[in-house]
Amino acid sequence: MNATQPASHSTAYSGQEAQTATDAAIDRTRLPDDKVLLRAAVDLTRDLHTAKPGIYWPDMLGSALIGYAALAGAILTDKTWLAILLGLVAVQALYRALLFIHEISHMHRDALPGFRSVWNLLVGIPMLTPSFMYEDGHTIHHSRTKYGTPEDPEYLPLALMKPWSLPVFLLIALLAPPALMIRFGILAPLGLIFPAIRKMNWERFSTLAINPDYRRRPPAEAKRRWYILLETGASIWALALFASIPLLGWRPLLVALAVFSVVAVLNQLRTLVAHLWENQGEPMTVTAQYLDSVNVPPPGIAAAMWAPVGLRFHALHHLLPSMPYHSLGEAHRRLSAHLGADSTYLQANYTGMIPLVGRIAASTMRARNTDKSA
């Protein structure tokens, strides 16, 4: 799902005009930590860090059940309009179910016993996105010293790249489902025979990364067995999908791939507006990381659809990464009321997806104009 591969994190800019165009990003990179904000984030939310099983389990199970039922209906119906309607329901429900992978990556192993395993069985493996594809890489993304640097698998300076980078970044997500079938159904079995393929598969195709230069390190010994089990399950499922074609025909697989492709594009669009993407590779303070991230808080309701499971509070999540998704709304209310309208905290709030896309697109256009005048 890599969109582009720039020569460096500043290839889109050159000369004096490039310097002018990126002043704001550089200033944010050098921004010192707002200690009042960081202290308030800790002090005001001490009671909000317990994951509630009564919220997690029904939300995840209900989303998966609705999603698969709608998908089955879309496959079985012979009415085009109904197939499209059920497909859209499946997209929204399975998208929500899939995004629990983000919660799992931050979840302590003793919190919600069995949740990680059940999610992998019901969602991660059937959607060919087992949790190991997110857990380790996402931890790096939250590292104070590695966020926004070339070592971050989930960061590209998209706002400083060429205009064509944005549509490519989104459209490449359409290929994710068939690519995952190849990764688990072909490359993984071949990796049992050829060590070079196994090494390539792990380093390059085992992390949900957008940084094309990222290479994953071998797993820690304590996690190796768990990762092997997940990869084996996903490989068996991918092979079963290939085997279903002569038995069931192409329609079931093509409808499922179409639904999963829309899910992937929706997630890629959410990723596009999760950050401002203005860092050029330098380490950033926690406050700078926060301001390079995005909150789209209520009262708008659209963000609850395209950024579910708490991801509409993505900047707040970077302040408090271990906070359960169901507590982020209350944490936001407390911090907003306590810190006031002129605080650093509210500077990460935006009104919706369209203004954010427009901001990033405008930045890429400045990069194009700079190249033309250079």
UniProtKB/TrEMBL annotation:
Protein name as annotated: Fatty acid desaturase
Superkingdom of source: Bacteria
UniProt KW keywords: Membrane, Transmembrane, Transmembrane helix
Short name of any one Pfam family annotated for the protein: FA_desaturase
Transmembrane segments: 55-75, 81-101, 113-134, 168-194, 226-247, 253-273
Family annotation (InterPro entries): FA_desaturase_dom, Fatty_acid_desaturase
Keyword DNA repair: no
Domain Fatty acid desaturase, residue spans: 80-341
Presence of keyword Transmembrane helix: yes
Region (Disordered): 1-20
